[in-house]
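Holo model, S-adenosylmethionine. Inputs:
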Amino acid sequence: MPMTLPPALDLSLDLLRCPTCRTRHLRPAHGALRCPVGHAFDIARHGYAGLLTGTRATSGDDAAMVQARDRFLSTGAYSPIREAGARLAADAVSAQGTVVDVGCGTGYYLAGALDRLPGARGLGLDTSVRALRAAARAHRRAAAVAWDVFRPFPLVDGAADVVLDVFAPRNPAEFHRVLRPTGRLVVIRPTGRHLAELRGHVPAMVTVDPAKEQRLHRALNPFFEAVVTEQVEYLAVLSRPDVLDLVAMTPSARHVSRADLDEDGLLPDRVTVSVLATAYRPR
Ligand SMILES: C[S@@+](CC[C@H](N)C(=O)[O-])C[C@H]1O[C@@H](n2cnc3c(N)ncnc32)[C@H](O)[C@@H]1O
Ligand SMILES: [Zn+2]
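Output:
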């Protein structure tokens, strides 16, 4: 347990509310955050706040997936996606705003947005302990909090100028509640062409359902209106270890063994990266 509060968490304390009784003003004391009523939540040695107590979330990346994601993202192969996310976030926030990244993973996209916004602070939510360890180190101004996107967020109403969701589960009603009325939701998701070259080699990799865009629209429409959509599409040239990491970080390929793939001499050395990035305004 750290003796001092991680600086990024200190920066973000006023955004938090107690997940149990919803009272605001969580205060640090003896390696924990405490609400005025007395509920207490550990601050992990690795720097994130463990607000998710009680029942365990059913989803979240395991250690091998997080390590593969971290290695893959560090190659820069997805940096055009990070730039698109940061650009849309920066269009919506003053330099001093707050960016909340839901299903933040290693914090790669949150850090990209904060780099573009020198006075802003960030907060990443994820269920995966391994991801949170990385997210807590991703940026000096980024705090990390263990949370399940499908439960009411431990954040006060109107806490965020930007909610960022990159390849992650969504909770439109909570996104709406925690966004300021002038804020923006930025959603980045794959198109049907994303990683198409890998599908023949990795049977477990599900094809992107063509009705997915429609479902996204239907889910967000009661709460949000699209303002602008950017398509990011390019061919990424990858080394063999990069391709293996790309497969290993994909949830649908969780059960494909690296050894099986390694024997497949025909793994592609370039893949199509194809995503849509949309900024939405709250209704
Ligand atoms: C495909 S990864 C994307 C991570 C990150 N946004 C990125 O693009 O690098 C999905 C992330 O959502 C997280 N996740 C899965 N289910 C979740 C849930 N119910 N609540 C919060 N995070 C969840 C996973 O642990 C993982 O970090
Ligand atoms: Zn409480």
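The domain at 56-282 is CATH 3.40.50.150 (Rossmann fold). Strands lie at 27-29, 32-34, 40-42, 98-102, 121-126, 142-146, 160-166, 179-190, 224-237, 270-282.
Archived with the compound record.
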